[in-house]
Amino acid sequence: MAAAAQVVPELEHPNKAFGWAARDPSGHLSPFNFSRRETGEKDVAFKVLYCGICHSDLHMVKNEWGFSMYPLVPGHEVVGVVTEVGSKVQKYKIGDRVGVGCLVESCRNCQNCNDNLENYCSSYTLTYGAKSRDGSITYGGYSDSMVVDEHFVVRIPDELPLDAAAPLLCAGITVYSPLRYFGLDKPGLHVGVVGLGGLGHVAVKFAKAFGAKVTVISTSPHKKEEAIQHLGADSFLLSRDQDQMQDAKESLDGIIDTISAVHSLVPLIGLLKSHGKLVMVGAPDKPLELPVIPLLMGRKLIAGSAIGGLNETQEMIDFAAKHNVRPDIEVIPIDYVNTAMERLLKSDVKYRFVIDIGNTLKQTS
Questions:
Q1: Of the residues 141, 157, 159, 273, which has the maximum number of CB atoms within 10 A of its CB?
Q2: Which cofactors does this gene product need (predicted)?
Q3: What is the per-residue pLDDT across 229-249, written as a single tens digit (0 to 9) for each?
């Protein structure tokens, strides 16, 4: 059973903002007036134009992970245009196209932070629903403006449309980082992608852009045509078909597993070549069984990966712009957000909702 949600008072700040928030674990979102902090000397303030809807937003508005704080303004795939910069900001100027992903603060002193792995800092601050270092609660991108330390801002290249850039700030870096770190980013390798949703479809696109051969692995036979004809995968495996899985045994150099439901790892391990890597980026809510003997027989590896550091996130965005990696999106107005959440719960989207904040938020204020 989820822990009780917290309701927090708002600190008084002079910068008024407007967005949509959930007030309780029903998850229903509605208009909400709040305040942003003043733009500090190292801060970048920007007008939000688009914000992607991540599946974690759905978990958070309903307090399914037990630590939501209300009112809660979701959104950590946020893009827009700079409106103000602090006196010590060096990388950005007014008018720049920018984005913010899952993090807005970290300690900046630990080994992980020194290694540009802010995502693994033990005291990072999430973009929304977290207590900031100044004591205020962070509010996300389902809103008209953001104020963020420039270190946690990325530049969006002109070649990349802003609406398509938004989901890359979570879904994109979540799959890009393990492909790079585990050496699955080289031409000629054979990479499997488990699941063809918001994460999986972007994983296919990045792996293909790296020059890999890509096999999509799914429980849904109707996704075969989509995987091959639309997303460009080289082959498709129906994981429930034992003959198909047996024929593909020991054929993959690595697998990116995007599934957040409980599922068996044994069939996936069987697909790996010796020294192959199964990387988990989904987050099942219950423990998975870990079979050890199949790992021993081939020196195979099971690992995990969560988003990426800021340098790598910028690298990912630049790579996507250069190689024309674009998530498949459905752009929606803000007043459709509750319906979008219901559809997301049923996986009824190809493959990522993006809210048109700039053109629709002010119409409901």
A1: 141
A2: Zn(2+)
A3: 999 999 999 999 999 999 999
